[in-house]
């Protein structure tokens, strides 16, 4: 999680991330990492295993790809040319880049769920009054209270 926080702070300091987006992103990281042991034991919570990836909207996919490759030593793991997406990482995807406005925005992040089972997660979300959705952009996701897309996988 520390690399994600460092990257977000650096983007904020360079002016590439608004204060609101920084606070929202950091808040979501804290929430994702603090699963109540009580809820987990009762089986009513979804247990997060960590941040799976962050999706960033960029103005120039090639330029951003080179930035992440050169600075962090990431490799292209997959591409979706039809949607203009490049996924970078080492053994697994860490950053997903997509050419779309508004540029410089984290459009969603993925939370890895221990023992992910889509049907069980769907039931848990519905019990909590949340409406899971699914599309090509965010995969299987819910919106947080402020409308941030949180992908579950």
* Overall tally of domains: 1
State the assembly state of the protein chains.
Answer: single chain
Instruction: Record the strand order, biggest sheet.
Output: 2-3-4-1-5-8-7-6
Helix content: 25-40%
CATH architecture name = Roll
Shape call:
globular
The value of Rg in angstroms is: 16 Å
Low-confidence stretches: 35-42
Secondary-structure element order, N to C:
HHHEHEEEEHEEE
* CATH class bucket: Alpha Beta
Give a written overview of the molecule.
With 153 residues, this protein is of the alpha+beta class. The chain has one domain: 2,3-Dihydroxybiphenyl 1,2-Dioxygenase, domain 1 (Roll). It is 36% helix and 33% strand. It contains 5 helices and 8 strands. It has helices at residues 2-13, 19-33, 37-42, 61-72, 118-127, and strands at residues 48-58, 75-80, 85-89, 93-99, 105-113, 133-135, 139-143, 149-152. Strands 2-3-4-1-5-8-7-6 form an 8-stranded mixed sheet. A hairpin with a 3-residue loop joins β6 and β7. The protein is globular and about 45 Å long. The model is unreliable at 35-42 (pLDDT under 50).
Brief rundown of the structure:
This protein has 153 residues and is of the alpha+beta class. The chain has helices at residues 2-13, 19-33, 37-42, 61-72, 118-127, and strands spanning 48-58, 75-80, 85-89, 93-99, 105-113, 133-135, 139-143, 149-152.
């Amino acid at each position: 999680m520390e690399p994600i926080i460092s990257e977000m702070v650096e983007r904020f300091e360079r002016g590439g991330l608004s204060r609101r987006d920084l606070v929202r992103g950091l808040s979501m990281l804290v929430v994702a990492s603090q699963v109540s042991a009580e809820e987990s034991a009762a089986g009513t919570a979804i247990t997060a295993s960590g941040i799976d990836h962050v999706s960033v909207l960029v103005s120039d996919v090639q330029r951003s790809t080179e930035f992440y490759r050169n600075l962090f030593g990431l490799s292209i793991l997959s591409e979706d040319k039809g949607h203009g997406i490049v996924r970078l990482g080492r053994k697994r995807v860490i950053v997903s880049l997509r050419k779309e406005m508004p540029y410089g925005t984290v459009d969603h992040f993925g939370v890895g769920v221990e023992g992910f089972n889509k049907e069980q997660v769907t039931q848990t979300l519905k019990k909590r009054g949340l409406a899971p959705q699914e599309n090509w952009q965010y995969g299987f996701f819910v919106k947080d209270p402020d409308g941030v897309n949180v992908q579950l996988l």
